[in-house]
């Protein structure tokens, strides 16, 4: 008699959930310093035009979109799984070059403008390459940790909580540390970066040592992973495709907001130190939202909570555009918008593992790496656009560093930080509301069907017929 616990009801320990969340604390300590401050470092310290900064983001992020795909191929190609597991070794070994390159990006040099631009681009591309190996493995690991959908939602909440803590620490702490080096602001950037990546490494290693891969599955020998198949994993998986489109909008909106807020607080509100306070309160609201995710998802379902978060986000941005010209109102409405983003960003990660089972149910092939990196491909394209657009728009609205900005430039900053993200959030809400069909009931049915298939091994042709018939009904 089989006495092994039911994978759908197996509970994870609090210690393991905490360890998993620490992985995104570490990832975001190393990533967010670039998301928040690298463009400003380029324009104000390295002396690059804002347009050049935007192009660097565009080129490097497009490059890392494909490195994400290569990571998926590498993960799915593994046939021999050692005691460290299928995903955990990449988390451990790639974290060191991520930390080194993240620090090197904040080093100034006396090269000519073309050489400066080339060096900055190469460093950003290297960061993206190693970050893909580390972070894609971290995200793709969830289906190997648990099959329980509620536990996956909790892991997603812990992950988003970790990401929020990392982002909060960077938002609140980076500029005060940088400002301690008044004699050399460029040295301040470098020292702050070194401090944050060191903390990031410790968190990543905590994650590596604290999580366990329970359901590691090796892809059949006849299935050869490739970048083309990673793209096919998106287009043959309707829930994943819809999620990619929605995520393309939400991540671009979120990153644009983060990149522009340092300019907004300095030139529109005339108080760059407000950034730390705003980060403290708004990221605190995200953390509260993340803690609520498991409860509200259990009651209302993932899709409904996702849409509710997008509505809060859009309303907060609209209110900020019209009435956020004072520091108090800016912080208040930003808290509302960021509270909404907590549900959206958390559920992005909770929904992806569900599409892994959908893809296995439909095609008969389980490919965590291809599904996850197909999804992260859309995130990197989104991040490329989010990095490119602020650089281009700063040039278009007439931004010049270290001077008082014109009224037209100030209006442009307000549009960039509020109206663009609001519009993208609305597009994401419409996309998810109309086209995402993988609800909790259908997911439970899929898991049950997969369990039956594995117990009663059906002939390959019959399985394909069943897949085709099932795909019509979903």
From TrEMBL:
Per the record, the domain of life is: Bacteria
InterPro entries in the record, alphabetically? MFS_2, MFS_trans_sf, Na/Gal_symport, Na/Gal_symport_CS
Give the transmembrane ranges: 51-75, 87-106, 118-140, 161-181, 187-208, 240-260, 272-293, 305-323, 329-352, 383-404, 416-436
Q: Which PROSITE patterns match?
A: NA_GALACTOSIDE_SYMP
How does this chain sit within the bilayer?
Multi-pass membrane protein
Family annotation (CDD domains):
MFS_MelB_like
Q: Which UniProt keywords apply?
A: Cell membrane, Membrane, Transmembrane, Transmembrane helix
The listed locations are: Cell membrane
Broad class of where this protein is predominantly found: membrane
Instruction: Fetch the SUPFAM superfamilies from UniProt.
Output: MFS general substrate transporter (SSF103473)
Glycosyltransferase recorded as keyword: no
Family the entry assigns: Belongs to the sodium:galactoside symporter (TC 2.A.2) family.
Q: What is this protein called?
A: MFS transporter
Organism for this UniProt entry: Atlantibacter subterraneus
